[in-house]
Amino acid sequence: MRLIAPMRQIPPQSRQALYNVNATRGIEQTAQACLPAHTLMQRAGLAVAQLAMAIAPHARRIWIACGAGNNGGDGLEAAMHLQHWGKAPVVTWLGSPDTCPGDAAESYRRALASGVNFAQEPPLCPDFCIDALLGIGSHARPPQGQLAHWIHQINACTGSVLAIDVPTGLNADTGVLTEPSVKATDTLSLLTLKPGLFTASGRDAVGNLWLHELGGHLTSASSHPASEPTAWLAGAPMPRTRQHASHKGSYGDVAVIGGATGMTGAALLAASAALRAGAGRVFVGLLGHSGLEVDTNHPELMLRSIDSLDFTAMTVVCGCGGGEYIHEELPRIISTAAHVVIDADAINSIAKERQLQHLLKARANGHASTVLTPHPLEAARLLGTTAQLVQQDRMAAAHRLAQAFCCTVVLKGSGTVIAAPDQTPVINPTGNASLATAGTGDVLAGMVGAALASHVPAFEAACESVYRHGLAADRWPRHLPMTASHLTQFVLR
């Protein structure tokens, strides 16, 4: 059988539409209504088998672990093709032809007729495994019994592990993992890309990510409401070109307010990042009693008393190393700044005081730009919940914050989520664990501030800054430890 659309690996630089489970099932149903019975599962199985041969062409002991649902049916179809191609896979199946879905029952009959070897237990020391256990049927309840046992055996495989649709145990919508869960070296997403593949624990679980649309979008994209993406995977932003006939005033003023005693470095990191990201001028208003008059590493930074700064024509980045001192500055900043980026201690202050929350919401009435950049714990404080609950559904948490405060929200973490009222959320694909070090959030805040000062709309400014911030980390030499101050050297406009 020839497939309608090619299989492709998903590069981090490309913008991609993401669909949650409900939207994916809607697309699937629409496609099935336009195609002969059993077509989608046949296409899925063939795609899995083809990718398996590409990943492990010399594998000798192939184990396909099949669940009782349609994900297992995809695995049964793949087994039939691999059997035809002389690979003799061993299939363990949790289903029954009498109780499984109709498509899966048909695939079982096809696999049986092809001579596929069904066994109660996997082969000894398999050198290639296919996870066809749950797919998008994974949910919050931890796998138990035989299912859990097979997951442990898959993870003990010395060769590659190919997961069908999503690794078993990974929530396709949220990226939350149950334990035990499959850790795949490769994942073939079918019909659509799912948000959970890119945020929370998704990136750690999927390995190399592939997509085959199975021809589903050709029949559904224009005819089914579910074809509207649930979210977008951010693509590489276009380079910002500068006109020759421009000057520093063309790219705006950024004022960084923070750096209380003992935390001066946080404000200077944000300010230096704003410089590197293209701000025309950067002012620094240090809190507390700092005697610093010049940053010799960045003499371009203009240190000023906070009272001397007029925020009405500035982009203010506030909270980086702000401590408790930032609280008294927030009413003026929130009420008067043309654009504002609120980070760290400024977020914590707002979470504690309703009056500041009201002022923040009121900014939207004057069409002033606001970007919040919380990590999960800071987001939890704003929402009156816990970091654990925020992480259980990162997109929902970011959406709640954006709606509550009428602003753009950058929920940091693996697969940073950018949300804003009346905008489809964006998940960022760049960045890595090297960003888990002090000061990298200050760098991001400064970058967002520079983009806002250059008249980039808030949502776009947040998306492109988060992407470039992660890309700078991805470009960092792997043999060198990364610090936030050095990260700014890799920041591009």
Any idea how many domains? Answer: 2
Give the N-to-C terminal Cα separation.
47 Å
Structural class call reads: alpha/beta
Write the CATH architecture name of the largest domain. Answer: 3-Layer(aba) Sandwich
Arithmetic mean pLDDT: 93
Largest sheet report: 11 strands, mixed
Annotated CATH homologous superfamily of the largest domain:
Ribokinase
In terms of DSSP E residues, the strand content is 15-25%
CATH top-level class of the largest domain: Alpha Beta
Describe this structure in words.
The protein has helices at 21-34, 39-55, 70-84, 102-113, 145-155, 202-206, 216-220, 264-276, 326-336, 344-352, 354-362, 376-383, 387-392, 394-405, 440-453, 458-474, 484-487, and strands at 8-9, 16-18, 62-66, 90-93, 117-118, 128-132, 160-164, 186-190, 208-212, 231-233, 253-258, 281-286, 302-303, 315-318, 339-342, 369-372, 408-411, 417-419, 426-427. The chain is an alpha/beta fold. It folds into two domains: 8-231, Rossmann fold (3-Layer(aba) Sandwich), CATH 3.40.50; 248-490, UDP-N-acetylmuramoyl-L-alanine:D-glutamate ligase. An eleven-stranded mixed beta sheet has the order 2-10-19-18-17-16-15-14-11-12-13, with helices on both faces. An eight-stranded mixed beta sheet has the order 1-9-8-7-6-3-4-5, with helices on both faces. Helix 5 links the parallel strand 6 (128-132) and strand 7. Residues 219-224 have low confidence and may be disordered.
